Amino acid sequence: MKTDDFAYIVETEKSFDEAVVSVLKSVEQKGWALFQIYDVKERLAAKGFKQKPLKIIEICSGKYANQFLNKNRLISLCMPCKINVLEENGKIKIVGMKPTMISQFFSEVSEKDAEEVERDVKEIVDNAR
Question: Which site from 32, 79, 89, 113 is most exposed, i.e. has the minimal number of CB atoms within 10 Å?
Fold first, then answer.
């Protein structure tokens, strides 16, 4: 399995903080809900570890969440969707997990249904770029 199989990655010219704000705005514009933001660098620093900037942004579409949970409640293991903003090799990247992976783990979810969710996630990432 390659990274491209499960992650949609774009680089941005924005600063790290600008990219985070841009993702939040894009999520709101798409009508998705923001669940939580984890500042991994900050949390690890509190434990004495040093990391480059990394924020994990949890998002959810009630429509898709309800649809998938009605098929198999264990799909909740793959929820909510995540978009990460990170610094890697001096570049700022916005990364979304590809929801089409869900259809590979849960046969109840058609690839077509998962592709619909993935289109939204990619649009959120692209608009945040």
Answer: 89
Q: At what angle do helices 16-30 and 111-128 cross, to 10 degrees?
A: 130
Cα separation, 13 vs 95, in Å, equals 14
* pTM for this predicted structure: 0.93
Looking at residues 111-120, what average pLDDT do you find? 95
For 118, the enclosing helix (H) or strand (E) is: helix 111-128
The structure tokens 């841009």 sit at: 22
Q: What is the DSSP string of 35-104?
A: EEEEEHHHHHHTTT-----EEEEEEE-HHHHHHHHHH-GGGGGG-SEEEEEEEETTEEEEEEE-THHHHH
Q: How does pLDDT run across 22-71, given as a tens digit for each residue?
A: 999 999 999 999 999 999 999 999 999 999 999 999 999 999 999 999 99
Question: Which pLDDT belongs to residue 1?
Answer: 82
* Structural domains in the chain, sorted by start: 3-128 (3.30.310.70)
Q: Which tokens hold the place of 101?
A: 């992976």
